[in-house]
Amino acid sequence: MAHLRPLENHEVDQELRDMFAHYEKTRGFCPNSVKTMARRPNISKTFGKLNQVILYEGTVPEELKMLVALASSLASGCRYCQSHMTNLSSIYKASDEKIAAIWEFETSDLFSDAERAAIKVGLKAGTLPNDVTAEDFDELKQHFDEGQIVEIVATIALFGYLNRWNDTMATQLEELPTQVTERAVGHKGWEAGKHG
């Protein structure tokens, strides 16, 4: 059970209602994490802007950013973010088979060498202590320019914040990402844990 109740539309200002509506339109629901942050409106609003810039701008394909965020969330253990990133990976055209194979990314033919390099950094950066090496960056540089590497690391760092936020708050998982995650990886034993 969540430690704090997400706020409802009638409890927030118009800017946040518009932000909530944007999430509803693009994802099919507004994340409870954002609705909980709304107790301090500027945190929620600033997070929304940062999320937009990191995940949806630049030249790294959105599918890859979602998979990197999923890998980082898997490494950190945040089931809320795992479910959200499974859902967003699916929205951005990653197949259920590819999502389910994320732990086998190094050997699965579903992943390109560029995806392998980025996902490896996502997994290693999501562990504590951070396990990323100079060799991992050398591999990234074979596939991505410096601006793209900044996008990939920004994606991982954004989920460092979200993984800590949602796991600490025990944020209640919404129905849609739960359904997508159960469809894509339920057969691998995934459960919502404290977020269910």
From TrEMBL:
Superkingdom in the source lineage: Bacteria
Family annotation (Pfam families): CMD
Chain ranges of the Carboxymuconolactone decarboxylase-like domain: 42-121
PANTHER family per the UniProt record, alphabetical: CARBOXYMUCONOLACTONE DECARBOXYLASE-LIKE DOMAIN-CONTAINING PROTEIN (PTHR35446:SF2), SI:CH211-175M2.5 (PTHR35446)
Protein name: Carboxymuconolactone decarboxylase family protein
Gene source species: Marinobacterium maritimum
